Amino acid sequence: MSEETRPGVARSYTSARRHPWVLGKLGDWTMPFGPYTPAQLVVLGGGAFVLIQTFSWWSWAGPVPVVAWLVSVWAVRGAQIAGQNPFTAILGVLVVLTRHPAGRIGGRTARDKQHSYFGGQFIIEPARAATPAAAAPAGVAAAGPATGVVTSGAQASGVRAAGSGLDRLLAGAGRADA
Fold first, then answer.
1. Which helix (H) or strand (E) holds 94?
2. With 155 labelled, which of 49, 56, 108, 129 sits at a CA distance of 20 to 30 A?
3. From the CB of residue 55, how many other CB atoms can be counted at a distance below 10 Å?
């Protein structure tokens, strides 16, 4: 066969380099009905322990508990919690439960700042007494009985007092009456 007619062959050895996430396979030998995932081995071992310790409770049921145990081992073969291995998910839950409630900042536990107390002083003075209407300053007329408005001498002569910014602007333009 010439080089031109030979088909190209591509091989990938990545899976051979990875440690498989299954146990119970050693070379060409595998455990019966295996290989098993770690979750299956936990159910297998834990279930066997519980069945042996509680034999007197379930012995009257015959092989039903043993069959249920073996079905549960088969059922957890592809168990995932939120797309993760159950052990990784349980480890994540334990990490979250043991973490400091304030969290971490820059790899360190976040702490609240220490309290600092205000050390200043302040004085409360009594309020000033109101000036009576008889002692009003010069140029301010007393309130008239008909209007009830206090007018100054400048307003009485026809010139508007500069109270607001618009009044000051109009007074500066020479149009205080507008």
1. helix 86-98
2. 129
3. 10
Distance in angstroms (rounded) separating the CA atoms of residues 177 and 161:
11
Note the residue count of the chain. Answer: 178
CA 102 distance to own-chain centroid: 11
Higher pLDDT, 93 or 172: 93
Domain boundaries, the chain: 19-100
Nearest 10 degrees: CA dihedral of 59, 62, 63, 66? -20
User: What tokens appear for 94 in the block?
Assistant: 């334990």
More reliable by pLDDT, 173 or 48: 48
Q: What contacts 89, CB < 8 A, 6 or more positions away?
A: 81, 82
**Residue whose C-alpha is closest to residue 84's, from 21, 28, 164, 35:** 21
What is the tens place of the pLDDT at every residue in 17-73? 555 555 666 667 777 777 788 888 889 999 999 999 999 999 899 999 999 999 999
How far apart, in whole angstroms, are the C-alpha atoms of residue 11 and residue 31? 29
Tokens 């009257």 identify what position?
60
At 141-165, the pLDDT tens digits run 554 444 444 444 444 445 555 467 7
Contact 177, 160 (CB under 8 A): yes
Q: Which two tokens stand for residue 127?
A: 């309020």
